[in-house]
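[job 4471] stage=fold_predict status=RUNNING
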Amino acid sequence: MNLKGVLVSLLFFVPSAVFGQRIKHVNANGVDFAYVEKGRGVPILLVHGSLSDFSMWSAQMDALARNHRVIALSRRYHWPNLLKEEPKDYTPQLHANDLVSFIRALKIEPVHLVGQSYGGLICAFVAKDHPELIRTLTLIEPPIFSLLPGHPERPPFITAALNLFAKGKAMRP
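[job 4471] inference complete, writing structure tokens
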């Protein structure tokens, strides 16, 4: 098998090996979304950050699936979803609308919604605009300061921390 064949094999078989099941697809908000799921019970929906895809949740899937139906979504413009053109509308509002449509397309509301980084920001928008879809909300390092009342874009403690890191004076383990 040549290198191209190996790469194509990896693209199609690694996710199945990682999750132990096949990649599923659903059309939501006019887009075909790839996702994986495992387990049965009350749904937990896992939403990844900017520089990843559903595979970032592979280490958590088995443990969470013992008592829940766990669904890890790959967001618009993220592998293995097809990127037909350069993204022109990569906004948290668009991704939040996608997430609302995804939840409704699978008929899984209300969900335990878990978002990491930019995925957390998207989940915060969904919780704010569609609380009826959410059972619980877990945000892991979301960039949500701009959503909080009375907070500037960059709170002073963030500026102070960045300055310490830049000077090499941040606490180190």
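[job 4471] summary: The first strand starts at residue 24 and ends at 28.
[job 4471] exit 0
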